[in-house]
Design goal:
Blueprint (H helix, E strand, L loop, with lengths): L4 E4 L6 E4 L7 H5 L1 H7 L4 E8 L4 E6 L6
Parallel strand pairs: 2-3
Antiparallel strand pairs: 1-2, 3-4
Length: 66
């Protein structure tokens, strides 16, 4: 299973987390894992990449959270 990639966000100097989904872990990645990632204070953006559907879901942190 590929590990999530991390890069610096150009606008805020915070982190962007980009996991690549797989059929066997998609529910977990969109559920429990997503909730844990959202608690990371320096996380500015969270993207879910679905290669099979050729889709990227992007979540950006607002003042009250993601």
């Amino acid at each position: 299973m590929p590990k999530p990639s991390m890069r610096r966000s150009k606008c805020a100097g915070n982190w962007n987390l980009t996991p690549f989904l797989s059929p066997g872990t998609e529910a977990y990645d969109r559920g429990a894992k997503s909730q844990r990632y959202r608690k990371i204070p320096s996380l500015a953006e969270y993207s879910l990449v679905d290669i099979e559907r050729r889709r990227v879901d992007l979540f950006r942190k607002l003042p009250d959270g993601l």
